Amino acid sequence: MKNVIFDWSGTLVDDLPPVLEATNRIFAHYRREAMDREEFRRTFKLPFAEFYEEVLPGVLMEDLDRLYIEFFASSEATVSILPEAVEVLDYCRSTGRRIFLLSSIHRDHYEQQSEALGLDRYFEVAYAQVLDKKQKIHEILEVHELDPGETMFVGDMVHDIETAKHGGVFSVATLTGYDPPERLAAAGPDLTVSDLAGLKKYLQTPA
Asked: How does pLDDT run across 56-72, given as a tens digit for each residue?
């Protein structure tokens, strides 16, 4: 594997606390009952529009996006680097692998978080605020002349696994993020790791 595409939220960083807080404040705004962490993990999915159409049908995405940005910005919950994220990024870089980001996170949030956490320097190109990753994966492969057979996409959600399959690249599910293990298993990833230490071990294994 010469090229590694990473998701952001739940894969490299844990941003679930402020995401859940912002989402519940949106629910409160529309007088909907809040979700706890586990209910949110069972219910949340990408693309965002599909999730909100189920939980708040008929509400315009531009209104939801405006509220989310406001509530996320005012949250005091922290975003932290997940275990072994820096180590696996360092390993990829030291072994000459090309590293990209493909994430649905709002671009401003990505830029703020990646700079604060010191992760922005790792990516050749960071694709953020991508509403449907399946619509972007082929463009990334073509623009950067990446061989799908030498490329993997690492993510924590079913949409990430579906995106990898759509692009014909190796799919890696990490159990550190949003989707529970049983949902990820049902998506049929090529590889499942409990955390990024497992990914580093896989990359270190001779072909």
From this structure: 999 999 999 999 999 99
